[in-house]
Design goal:
Layout lengths: L2 H8 L3 H17 L4 E5 L2 E6 L2 E9 L2 E6 L12 E2 L6 E5 L7 H13 L19
Antiparallel strand pairs: 1-2, 2-3, 3-4, 4-6, 5-6
Amino acid sequence: MNKEVEKYNNSQLPADQEICDLLASIIDKQLPNAENKIWHAHPVWFLDGNPIVGYSKQKKGIRLMFWSGADFEEASLNVLGNKFKDASVFYNSVLDIDTTALIRWLDKAEKIQWDYKNIVKRKGVLEKLT
């Protein structure tokens, strides 16, 4: 696990740290070619500079967000972004994490991508990569 991500996870309360550690472990295993770093104060994984998945502590729990998740057609990713193509799910216990679904979502995250890397250059316009 990336040392910055480990530091982020360790800064959480025990139950949230357990969630973060499990998420990071599964994401690292499923996206071995992804770059992982702290971006906008929380852990994010990138493929070729494009943000794919990340998580953050919010009032409702640990939010797992997929930048292109709105196109995954997954009912469990039920928190949809208003402006972009993101979709999320919240966890309050490690027992809430459906690892089979998470692995499926990560597979889709590699195959279904919108180009967030160049969104500033395109003045807020997203283009589909895959």
